[in-house]
Structure formats: structure tokens, C-alpha cells
Design goal:
The protein is built from 15 helices and twelve strands. It is α/β, with parallel strands linked by helices.
Length: about 350
């Protein structure tokens, strides 16, 4: 199939009432290919400080750091009731839980810019112009991201260039002031009711969202101004874990999503928009791999009329041919009443982070 320029895809999408955007890891790679890549945090982590903890992940059947840390801490609290004569095991479990927290912090830090100033202003301005296709104007819909880095959040918080027309991007993400602490350096998720008006959703969580056990908080750069590594370390010290879906398979990811109110509400919002027959969906930076079928199949079983899939590089490459086949596979899930049209655009021509 022909690969059209991004501007042509946007022009063609004017026939629909709303444009939505689904972002994959290629969005981040396009900004900083030197640090963002497709490996999971588990695969990138250095466990040399406590190699035994790898067996904890295997025993639990997960790659979720939070699950492993909680398991170690919970086991340490009950083990004395069964093995009272061996306090060393308890001490080892607690020490390994502490080491795992530091491994998580270090892994996050080495794969992410520390502060927004690490990204040139010109990149943010270019990205805001790209996002304006989906978050401004009469076709504005929602932006959904499968990434848990902070690039999208930082871009939405960034000011436009001082010379030129400002872009009024919709950036409601369902978070607001804590009524019990309105001046706090964080905001809290307002729940399902206010989530319906959100225009930006982190489908797999994000590194600035922390589960405190009683509520989901969002650390804001504007209020907190703390580098990512310090922010994560502080939160973990207070037993607040960054909310992100780190599991490998689609089934594992969907399981975690269904067990978290914010993630599940975001998933439902994505599904609801995919069911709108007058809407269209753009996909940028995603390989349509099956480990995200829990999201992608919502499109295939939905009613939105058309998807525009970004293709980077040679369309004839095996990698891109596979993406095209996967996209056609989504169309094949449709009934005759709600056919899905598929178009492919040149991802580089979108100039998401500039030329």
C-alpha cells in the first residue's frame, strides 16, 4: 500500500469528527534514541548487587518490581512465625527489598532525562505542534500513550516559543488538587467521574504517577521541580510505587490494568473512543506487536472508521511489512457493518520532535 505524507493523512482525516492519537515507544525513541529503546525495565536492570532476587521474579511469574518488593517485605513479616530460629533470612529479605528499590530507581534514571531542561526547547515546540493536531481545534480528540516516560507530560507542560502563536492544547488528565492538601507539591486522581473529561491518558501508567496505597498521586514538575531520580527515590522510601505496567505479555498487562482503577478507567476511555463510528485513530511509534493486543484489539473490534499507522524507514523492510500485516489483521476483525479502513503514513514526515 502507498505511504502518504503525514500532512496528507491529516488532511484526509478531516472527514471525521474527532482525531485520536495512540503513542508507542517510537515516540520517545524519535526524541532521544540514545537512551530510549524497546527493552523492558526488567531486561535493562543490573541485579549484580543481589543476583538472588531474580529467582523471586521467576517464582512469582512476573517482571513487576512492585510485586517482587511487596512479596519480599510480606514474607519477611510472616517468616518468624514459621522459622523463629533464623532471623538472618528476614534480614536478607528486607535488604533485598531495599536493594530492589534502588535497582528500580537506577534503571529508570539511566533510561530517562533527569529534568525537562535536558531536552532542547525546539524539540518541545515541534512536539507541541504535532500534538495540536489531536489536542486543539474542532477535531481535537484524545491522546493515549503506552509509554511510561515523562516526555509527553513534559511537552504538555512546556511553554510555546516566545515569538509566535501560542497553542492551546487540551491537557486535562483527570488529576487535580487534593482537597485535604490543596497546596501540596502533587495532585491526585479525581476518580472515574472527572476522568470522562480527560483528554490525555497513560494507558500503562507513568513514572510521575505514584500509588500511595490510599490514592494515586501525580508529582508535577511545576510544583515539585525535583529531578526524576530523586523523585522516585523519595516516593519509594515512603512505600509509594511508580504506577506503570511492566509485565511482558498482553494477558499479564491486561491483568494489572484490570486491578487498578486509573488504568482500567483509561482503558475504558480508549475503548469508548474506538467504538465511535465517526472518529479516526492515528498510531505513531508502535510496531502493533501482539504484547499490546489488549489495547490494539479494541480498535479491531471497535467502530472507528479509519486508522492511520506511522511507518518509519523502508516500507519494504521485514519489520515494516510485519506492521502492515498486523494493521490489516485489525481490519479483518471487523464486521461488514463497521469496516475499518487502513492507511499508512511516513512517520518521519510528521517531524514529531522537529526536522
Amino acid at each position: 500500500m502507498p505511504i502518504i505524507p503525514f500532512t496528507d493523512a491529516i488532511a484526509d482525516s478531516a472527514q471525521f469528527s474527532k482525531r485520536h492519537l495512540l503513542l508507542g515507544n517510537g515516540f520517545s525513541i524519535a526524541c532521544r534514541a540514545d537512551i530510549f529503546h524497546y527493552g523492558s525495565l526488567f531486561a535493562q536492570a543490573d541485579f549484580s548487587a543481589a543476583p538472588q532476587v531474580v529467582e523471586v521474579f521467576k517464582a512469582l511469574g512476573t517482571q513487576d518490581f512492585e510485586a517482587a518488593i511487596h512479596a519480599l517485605e510480606n514474607a519477611a513479616s510472616i517468616l518468624p512465625a514459621y522459622v523463629p530460629a533464623d532471623p538472618s533470612a528476614v534480614a536478607t529479605m528486607l535488604d533485598h527489598a531495599r536493594i530492589l528499590k534502588e535497582i528500580l530507581v537506577q534503571t529508570i534514571a539511566k533510561n530517562h532525562p533527569h529534568i525537562p531542561a535536558d531536552i532542547p526547547d525546539a524539540k518541545f515546540w515541534a512536539c507541541r505542534r504535532f500534538l495540536a493536531n489531536f489536542l486543539a481545534g474542532d477535531k481535537a480528540g484524545c491522546v493515549f500513550t503506552l509509554n511510561y516516560d515523562l516526555l509527553l507530560y513534559w511537552t504538555l507542560m512546556h511553554d510555546d516559543m516566545p515569538f509566535g502563536q501560542a497553542l492551546e492544547l487540551a491537557k486535562n488528565d483527570g488529576f487535580g488538587n487534593d482537597e485535604d492538601a490543596p497546596d501540596a507539591d502533587y495532585v491526585v486522581w479525581q476518580g472515574e467521574t472527572n476522568a470522562h473529561s480527560a483528554s490525555v491518558m497513560f494507558l500503562h501508567g507513568a513514572l510521575h504517577l505514584f500509588d500511595t496505597g490510599k490514592e494515586l498521586t501525580k508529582y508535577t514538575w511545576v510544583r515539585k521541580g525535583v529531578p526524576l531520580i530523586d523523585q522516585a527515590r523519595e516516593a519509594l522510601a515512603n512505600n509509594a510505587f511508580p504506577l506503570f505496567v511492566a509485565e511482558g505479555t498482553s494477558v499479564q498487562k491486561k491483568t494489572k490494568i484490570r486491578h487498578n482503577a486509573y488504568l482500567y478507567q483509561s482503558f475504558k476511555q480508549f475503548t469508548a473512543n474506538a467504538m465511535q463510528g465517526k472518529h479516526c485513530m492515528f498510531i505513531f511509534g508502535h510496531s502493533l506487536a501482539e504484547n499490546d493486543d489488549h489495547i490494539l484489539n479494541r480498535i479491531g473490534r471497535g467502530r472507528c472508521r479509519k486508522i492511520y499507522v506511522g511507518i518509519f524507514g523502508d516500507p519494504a523492510s521485514a519489520w515494516n511489512q510485519q506492521i502492515m500485516l498486523r494493521a490489516q489483521g485489525l481490519a479483518a476483525l471487523r464486521s461488514e457493518r463497521w469496516p475499518l479502513d487502513v492507511a499508512f503514513y511516513d512517520a518521519a514526515s510528521a517531524q514529531v520532535w522537529g526536522a
